[in-house]
Design goal:
Length: about 600
């Protein structure tokens, strides 16, 4: 039977020590967020994750959701868990106080979101899209819409979803057909079909606020003709009370490989009443607020599942007796030694640990930049933070979910045959992790976004938000022998990343396929280099604290950093070579030969 324990010690390290140079406490609104409050919030979410959500993870997977008479019933225990989640004030953790929120930093949200994804991903999905819908409405909706909808969403009484995909279009939203016809009262009537809508129908919240992409009658073709509409399940009266049922209906739920406790719905809009959000024909730009939030959330799903998979694999490797150590019995009084003595098992466990702790540091760094983007008084710093988040969003989504799936598979490998059966719960982590590489933009699409949009944007301005701090870090620590074991490998990987960036920029001018062929390898090169920078900084902190440590925490940080630099980061050399090989071997292959 699988277990989960929130990694609070590492989270405290990340927030209080790794992010110390971000000076979050100096920003407006942070004066009422002392370290003690952050620790208390993390501890309370750990209790929710460990004691409420995780016990429902396996049962939710086995029971799944069911559709009866157009209504979705979530697994047993989910409704009560959601009520307790609401009562704890978690839906409004980072929302603005004027809408009933607590106003805590996004960095804290990142850490709590990881715990939810690790303990029960299916349940977490119902809550996380509401976070993105809140951000979308906050930034793009009228004051009337915000005042009418946001307080109930912040309270958790109403949830939010994102309705993009249709049977004939997934990534290519220019093909969508849902129509929105304007009415004399300023509303629109929407007709069409949406599929793969997470939480599009459920029995947890009183109302569901669907954010729907559709076309007005005079819309130009392609993505330039898309508008965004708010379509509630129940219409809302001017006083905020619920009115009649809107004409948006669940027609089916998907029977999926994983995340079976999350309802993935097909929705039919039959002259449903909708409200325009933002400007007509400019809906995709507005929807990107929610899409980017969702992409960061999905990256955290990869991290969360990687963490819980690692915890269980490490525990199993310490207990399971199998074979003898190559250097002689470690436990001669027992019939065999535990799996942990074997080099290949240790390789897998250290890989998992290096990934999860590396991802946690990267996600917190992005969270800190989100806080700067939203709170910092200096517009120049706000812009730099916004650039950084835009650049790292596709990396977090794709790199984290690839590593999350790899980590879940490594956990299964540690368990051997026992991991392949349902009894231990590892196979659920593998199944749940697989979707994260697909939805909210498949990982190949994220790679194309990185090289096709983010690298050339504003003459390379986004890149400077990452390249400059890394180069500054290396320059300031040049010649420090005690850090050479992390700074020298980082410098090599960073050099490869810089050269690969220049190569793609030059070659893609003549042939766009060059960027497309290099994109996936480049994203992983970027991800590994970013993680190396984070590991170097964590190792430096550990060196400074280790003399006073009696728990072994900082020594483990140093040892994991060394493993990452020696055994994982060298992969950047192979990625760099693949990028420089160009697109020929990919694009010259004849279509008919496939």
């Amino acid at each position: 039977m699988a277990t989960y324990k929130a990694p609070l010690r590492d989270m405290r390290f990340i927030y209080h020590e790794f992010l110390a140079d971000q000076h979050l406490e100096d920003m407006p609104g942070m004066e009422d967020v002392p370290p003690e409050l952050v620790d208390a919030v993390l501890e309370e979410m750990a209790k929710v994750a460990e004691n409420i959500l995780f016990p429902l993870n396996r049962s939710g997977d086995e029971e799944g959701c069911r559709l009866e008479n157009g209504e979705v019933h979530t697994p047993r225990g989910f409704k009560d868990a959601y009520q307790r989640y609401r009562e704890g004030g978690w839906p409004g953790l980072t929302s603005r106080p004027e809408y009933g929120g607590q106003g805590l930093p996004e960095t804290v949200y990142v850490l709590t979101s990881e715990m939810m994804s690790a303990s029960n991903l299916s349940f977490a999905i119902y809550t996380k899209l509401t976070h993105g819908a809140y951000q979308l409405l906050l930034k793009t909706a009228s004051e009337e819409i915000k005042n009418l909808y946001l307080p109930n969403m912040v309270e958790g009484r109403w949830t939010g979803t994102m309705c993009l995909t249709e049977p004939q279009c997934g990534t290519d939203l220019g093909l969508l057909r849902t129509k929105a016809v304007p009415q004399a009262d300023g509303t629109y009537r929407l007709t069409g079909n949406k599929i793969f809508i997470s939480g599009g129908e459920q029995d947890l919240s009183e109302n569901i606020i669907q954010m729907v992409l559709a076309r007005a009658p005079d819309a130009p073709p392609g993505v330039k003709g898309i508008s965004l509409f708010l379509v509630p399940k129940f219409l809302v009266n001017p006083d905020g009370s619920l009115g009649p049922r809107n004409r948006i209906f669940c027609t089916a739920i998907e029977h999926k490989m994983g995340i079976k406790g999350s309802s993935t719905c097909s929705l039919s809009l039959e002259d449903a009443t909708g409200y325009l959000i933002g400007d007509l024909h400019k809906g995709l730009r507005a929807m990107f607020v929610m899409m980017n939030s969702a992409r960061l959330e999905v990256g955290l799903q990869g991290l969360g599942l990687g963490e819980v998979a690692y915890q269980n694999a490490a525990a199993y490797a310490k207990e399971r007796l199998q074979g003898r150590a190559l250097t002689g019995p470690k436990n001669p009084e027992k019939p065999a030694d535990p799996l942990i003595v074997h080099p290949d098992v240790r390789r897998m466990l250290l890989t998992m640990r290096a990934y999860t702790e590396g991802m946690r540091s990267m996600s917190a760094w992005v969270g800190a930049q989100l806080d700067k983007e939203n709170r910092h008084p200096d517009p120049g710093i706000r812009q730099q933070a916004e650039d950084f988040v835009a650049l790292l969003t596709p990396v977090v989504k794709a790199f984290f979910t690839d590593l999350g799936f790899e980590t879940a598979n490594l956990a299964m490998q540690v368990y051997g045959g026992h991991g392949y059966i349902r009894e231990h719960g590892i196979e659920q982590f593998v199944r749940d992790a697989r979707i994260a590489q697909i939805y909210e933009g498949a990982n190949g699409i994220q790679a194309l976004d990185l090289v096709g949009r983010k690298l050339p944007a504003h003459a390379g301005r986004y890149l400077r938000s990452f390249f400059h701090p890394v180069q500054r870090y290396l320059d300031e620590r040049a010649g420090q022998a005690q850090l050479a074991f992390v700074t020298e490998p980082l410098a090599k990987a960073f050099g490869r990343l810089q050269r690969a960036t220049a190569f793609i920029a030059e070659r893609s001018l003549a042939d766009p396929n060059e960027a497309g062929a290099a994109a996936y390898d480049y994203l992983h090169l970027f991800g590994l280099t970013t993680m190396a920078y984070c590991w170097a900084r964590m190792a430096e902190i550990a060196q400074q604290k280790i003399k006073d440590d009696t728990t072994g925490f900082y020594q483990a940080k140093l040892d994991t950093a060394r493993f990452f630099m020696e055994r994982i980061l060298p992969r950047t050399s192979g990625l760099f070579s693949a990028i420089l090989s160009g697109s020929g071997s990919i694009m010259d292959f004849k279509d008919e030969a496939f």
